[in-house]
Amino acid sequence: MGKFYEESIIPAELRRNYDVYDRIKQLGIDLGTFEENVSSLQGRNIASVVIQESGLVYLSGAGGGQRQMSDDPERVKEGQKAAQDIADGHIRTLHWALSCGGEGGDLNDVLYTVKALGMVVSTDVDFKSGPAVVNGYSYRWQSVFGGGTGEFAENGIDPGGYAGVHARSAIGGFTGRFALEPEIIIAVPPALAQAIIRNRGWVFPLPPAMHEKVVAARR
Which residue of 32, 94, 117, 165 has the fewest C-beta atoms within 10 A of its own C-beta? Predict the structure, then answer.
């Protein structure tokens, strides 16, 4: 487990009993390299991740998929696959946001998931499959962090825990040339959040001076 997770207040009965990175490997999720994922905030007006000193971590929405959604079953499956890919991208982003500065944290320090919001693109006023599309995101998240609808659950029970289960809104009716845009909020131990903020600030990508600092520390 993560070093900060071990000191958390999570009850023994609900503690995760596996290494998150083992599941990530089994699912074939590519986390990429430091050079590919850790960059400067220079010239950007929106952060991918904001870390609050209480331990709440906010990930910005990410769009995906090629087409608007409808209630056609094949189109819904297409949207679910896009949602899964977006979840993989969020997991990759969160990994680097928590670990790039060398404070000792990583995805094993995720305590639980707070809230997801999935905005599904569809101009069909009778569209009813928004929740089904966003399930592709939620199920993937639970596969990594734990939950009864994830890849590793049996009969609705995940022996590894439930840290991936979240409150959620799934809303359809937006315009755009893509399928959906989910965002998510997770919780890490306050000690980790504060260590990150003290060392390199609260946003990811990193402010230019902090990016230079983190890169220099790796040399």
Answer: 32
